[in-house]
Structure formats: C-alpha cells, structure tokens
TrEMBL record:
Monomer. GO terms for molecular function: 4 iron, 4 sulfur cluster binding; metal ion binding; tRNA-2-methylthio-N(6)-dimethylallyladenosine(37) synthase activity. The keyword Electron transport does not apply. Catalyzes the methylthiolation of N6-(dimethylallyl)adenosine (i(6)A), leading to the formation of 2-methylthio-N6-(dimethylallyl)adenosine (ms(2)i(6)A) at position 37 in tRNAs that read codons beginning with uridine. It catalyses: N(6)-dimethylallyladenosine(37) in tRNA + (sulfur carrier)-SH + AH2 + 2 S-adenosyl-L-methionine = 2-methylsulfanyl-N(6)-dimethylallyladenosine(37) in tRNA + (sulfur carrier)-H + 5'-deoxyadenosine + L-methionine + A + S-adenosyl-L-homocysteine + 2 H(+). [4Fe-4S] cluster 2 binds at residues 169, 173, 176. Binds 2 [4Fe-4S] clusters. One cluster is coordinated with 3 cysteines and an exchangeable S-adenosyl-L-methionine. Residues 155-387 form the Radical SAM core domain. This is tRNA-2-methylthio-N(6)-dimethylallyladenosine synthase. GO terms for cellular component: cytosol. Coiled coil: none annotated. Residues 390-461 form the TRAM domain. The lineage of its organism: Bacteria, Pseudomonadati, Planctomycetota, Planctomycetia, Pirellulales.
Length: 469
C-alpha cells in the first residue's frame, strides 16, 4: 500500500530545495504527496531558525499535533531543517510526540530513520556535528547534500529550478545562526553542478537560480585547477534549453569585477544581484563583523553601476541590532536612498543562541523602536522602488510567465482568462491579463502602470503586416 506524506516548508530557498529533494527521495521509497496533514501517514516540517518568530511559529504548529498524534498514534512526525540542527533534543522535550529530528545536512538519512521508527526502535535523531565537535574535514563531511535527486513536481513552477552550488557559510556574521546550522562553507564540484543543470534543462527548466549562502564566494579546487562562480556561469551558459541564470545570495566583499563582467557578457545571466548591506552604519557593520565599511560597499555598488548599468540590485537590512542608535539607523535610510535598491528585505534583530552577538552584545534596542525603524525603512524603500518603477511605464519588458497571480488564484480557480504573473530578467514582478496556457512562455509585456512592488501591463500585440494580396 502506498504511504502518504505531507510537508510544510518555511524559510529560505535552501529549504524549498531541501524539501524538493526529500520528496524525490521519499517517492522513490513509495510515498505519495498529499496537501493536507489529515490525509498523511507522515507529517514533515522543514524549519527555519533565522529569527525567533520563525521558530515560535513552528513550535506552535507542532503543539497542535499533540492531539492528532494521540488520536492517530500511527502517524509519524518529523522535524527537519535548521531548527532540528539547532535545537536537537529540545524539540523532543517541547514536543515529545515527534518521531524524528533531522538536520539539513542529514536529510539523506530520512528513509532509514522512518524504517527504524516503523520497526519500533523508538524516536530517531540525525544531526550534523557542531562547528567545534571535531576536525574541520569531519565536521564538513557531516553536512552532506544529496542534490542529484530531483522532482520537478515539487517545484513552485516546472520551468524554474533552484540548484545548490555551495553549502554552509564561513563568514560568521555575529547575529547569524547559519554557520552553525548549515556548517562549513563547501563548494560542490562543477562537474556535478553542470550534470544537474543538464538534468534540469531536460526536465524543462528554463530558468535556474544558483543557491549559496554567499554564492559569489563559490570556489571549488579540483584536478584541473580552481573554479569560481564566473567560470561556473560560463560552463552553465553552454547548456541548451536554459534561458536565464540567476544566483543568490551575494556577499558584498566577493563581488569581483570579473564576475560582473561575466554577467555582462553572458546574455543568459540575469542583471539582478541580491547583495545584502545589512546596515548603513560602519559602527554597526563592525559589531556585525560583516567585513566591510560603507565606503567599501559603495565602491562595490559603483562597480555594479559601471559594468551593469541596467542591473537591479536588492538588499537585506537588520534594524535594531545591538547598540544601533538613531543616527546609525538614519545611515541605513541614507544608504537605501543612495543605492535605490529594487527591493529590500527588512528584519528586526532577533537574538540567536550560539551566535557571537548573543554571547557578547546586549540586545538593547526596545521592541517598539525596532518595529518603528522597520516601518520607516520599509516606507523609504517603497518610495524609492515606486519612483523607479514609474520610470518603466511605457517600456516593454520580456517576462517569463510563472502562472496565475495570487489575486487570480483566489478569485476563480477554473476561469480561463485570468491575471497572470511573471518576472523580468531583472527579477521585477509583472502582472497582466492573460490565460493559464501562457505559463512557461516568454512574453513581451507593455508596462502601463506600476506600484512599488509590481509592474502592471498587457501583452504586446505582434503587429500584423499586410502582405497585400
Ligand atoms: N535577526 C534578524 N535578522 C537576521 N538575519 C539573519 N540573522 C538574523 C537575526 N538574528 C537576516 C539577514 C539575512 C537574512 C536572510 O536574514 O538580513 O541576510
Ligand atoms: Fe549568515 Fe553572514 Fe553567512 Fe549570510 S554571510 S549566512 S548573514 S553568517
């Protein structure tokens, strides 16, 4: 009899990709995916630890399963991802009915753990070694990936795919839990990456987004020398079928001239860069241990403008980091105004156990001040994006159509003519009136209107030329 699995994924693109891999693996073991936990024999929660709020949401979702498990003791519950790695047994303590805890570097072990639970061997845990639990090579090996297993049905759209080129992070920004949960930075072998990209292209992927925590720091040393991201992009660019290549997230210090020139020279590379600044204040950046000053960030930014004048750049900011004064915060506001980011993800600082900031710095910005700064920075970012999007009105943009917009999906799921959504090469969101069959097509859209997050347009009619009979 086939067994059923439900998976709930929160957090970053890495988690979306991990869930795709887990499902591909479980399907091979006879599982079928269902959309509701009520119909599932196996309930999986792929979790995020980046901020406290994300963790509390997961714990509250798990809390609701207490009764479910009491009524259906045969249902198995697994907690995967960064929270599994970070909290380990704490999860068993807070939610004793959980059967499995699996860190992001141990996901390949899941089928075996399920077998053990089914065999009555009790609850199971597979996590990677901590950063200080052994030799660097041993710790690195305990964070494995199993990426070649792909399942296009699990993707948000079949023609867009993520491809991991790097795991872990070695930057150790003082606020961040990722170097602990995802382990040491390791670049995957280019041959593996290219082979996987070929598989994706054969499965119909038109757009591939390369993933890494600091993706532009990617390096792999092999027999034929060292490969960096620029060299990797050159190899991937050769693959037929792929039309767009993106990469996220970039680290400001590693945004080399060579990489930018490669993006400029390879037409499939999207002129879109996500290069989080995190703060506009040198004092805050120093406490965050980001490794650059604002002068250096601006130097990098000007390099982007010089080599890729039409690129869209987006950023992340943390507001209310330890010791952030009003004056520091105003410098973040200034940076948004100077750089005019396409968009910024803005977060309120959240203390994470096990990080340097948690050990050494005081979380001294009151909650209300964090919330207020968050709103203010968002308003400035929206204003900048609104003004820049207005300038696109009247132009024509090439859009990869993703599917019905959120509005359309809610309205009438069966209607043929619906509002569709897609993205430009620069990653701008575009909505237009169309039909479902256009999903996966590249269309020229004439921009009629714009808000701070969205361009609104219509399909440009191809001019009919009279051939005069
Ligand atoms: N608190 C708030 N935001 C954080 N981020 C990372 N760690 C924290 C934290 N402890 C943000 C950073 C990062 C993004 C993915 O999440 O801006 O770029
Ligand atoms: Fe976290 Fe900094 Fe690494 Fe990004 S670069 S994952 S913020 S430690």
């Amino acid at each position: 009899m086939t067994k059923t699995v439900y998976i709930k994924t929160v957090g970053c693109q890495m988690n979306v990709l991990d869930s795709e891999m887990v499902i591909a693996d479980l399907k091979r073991h006879g599982y079928e995916v269902v959309d509701s936990p009520n119909d599932a024999d196996l309930l999986l929660y792929n979790t995020c630890s980046i901020r406290e709020q994300a963790e509390e949401k997961t714990y509250s979702a798990l809390g609701k399963l207490r009764e479910t498990k009491a009524r259906h003791p045969d249902k198995k519950i697994g907690v995967l991802g960064c929270m599994a790695q970070k909290d380990q047994e704490i999860i068993f303590r807070r939610a004793p009915f959980v059967d499995m805890i699996v860190g992001p570097g141990q996901l390949h072990a899941l089928p075996e753990l399920i077998t053990k639970v089914d065999a009555g061997e009790g609850r199971q845990m597979a996590v990677s070694l901590g950063r200080k639990d052994g030799k660097q090579s041993l710790v690195a090996r305990s964070h494995e990936t199993f990426d070649p297993l792909r399942d296009p049905t699990m993707r948000p759209t079949p023609f867009q795919a993520y491809l991991r080129i790097q795991i872990g992070c070695d930057k150790f920004c003082t606020y961040c839990v990722v170097p602990n949960t995802r382990g040491p930075e390791q670049g995957r072998a280019p041959s593996e990456i290219v082979a996987e990209a070929r598989t994706l292209a054969e499965q119909g992927a038109l757009e591939i987004t390369l993933l890494g925590q600091t993706v532009n720091s990617y390096r792999h040393r092999g027999e034929d020398g060292e490969t960096d991201l620029a060299a990797l992009l050159e190899q991937l660019h050769e693959i037929d079928g792929i039309r767009r290549l993106k990469f996220v997230t970039s680290y400001p210090k590693d945004m080399s001239r060579r990489l930018l020139e490669t993006v400029r020279d390879l037409p499939k590379c999207s002129p879109y860069l996500h290069v989080p600044a995190q703060s506009g204040s040198d004092a805050v950046l120093r406490r965050m241990k980001r490794g650059y000053t604002i002068a250096e960030y601006m130097e990098m930014f000007e390099r982007i403008e010089e080599i890729l004048p039409n690129a869209a750049v987006s950023s992340d900011f943390i507001v209310g980091f330890c010791g952030e004064t009003d004056a520091d915060f105003q410098q973040s506001v200034d940076l948004v105004r100077r750089c005019r980011f396409k968009n910024s993800f803005i977060f309120q600082y959240s203390v994470r156990a096990g990080t340097k900031a948690a050990e050494r710095l005081e979380d001294d910005v009151p909650r209300e001040v964090k919330a207020q700064r968050n709103n203010e920075l968002l308003a400035v970012q929206d204003e900048v994006a609104y003004d820049d999007n207005q300038k696109l009105i009247g132009s024509t943009v090439e859009v990869l159509v993703e599917g019905p917009s959120k509005k359309a999906s809610k309205a009438d799921p069966d209607a043929a003519a619906v509002q569709m959504t897609g993205r430009t090469h620069c990653d701008r969101i575009v909505v237009f009136d169309g039909n479902r069959r256009q999903a996966g097509q590249f269309l020229d859209i004439h921009v009629d209107d714009a808000s701070s997050h969205t361009l609104i347009g219509r399909v440009r009619q191809v001019e009919l030329v009279s051939i005069g009979v």
